[in-house]
Structure prediction request, 147 residues.
Amino acid sequence: MAALQDRLAAALQAARKAQDKALTLLLGTILADLRNREIELKRALADDDVIDVLRKGVKKRRESVAAYEQAGRAELAAREAAEVAALERYLPAVASEDEVRTAVRAAIAAGAGAVGPVMAAVMPQFKGRADGGVISRVVREELSRAE
Prediction:
């Protein structure tokens, strides 16, 4: 079992003892998602796999926040936003845009001249630490400057 998965299980136990119903439900759901992912992959999860599941959970909840806000359901949007904050505590620190920009410039300097090759060079460095949309935007900005 991955160390991060152990931390989540311990946090679930602590939430149960504290009788924090919202956190218990959230962590229980995430641990169920992790078990489903384990079954799907037919192997024990590594921390990278756990991070992927957490990121998907965060993304799903952010989409829910936007939908609830659009529908005028502020109380539900606030609950989902609180869940996002709770899950983000278990994710690695997000890479800054400057870090991404430096890596993109290095990839361009190494000879990658199109979006695809630059993304292929940069994405593995920021797996789980930067949003693909941010990386893509930075790549396009830097390529337009390089021309």
Summary: The chain has two domains: 3-88, 97-146. The first helix runs from residue 3 to 17. The chain has a mean pLDDT of 88.
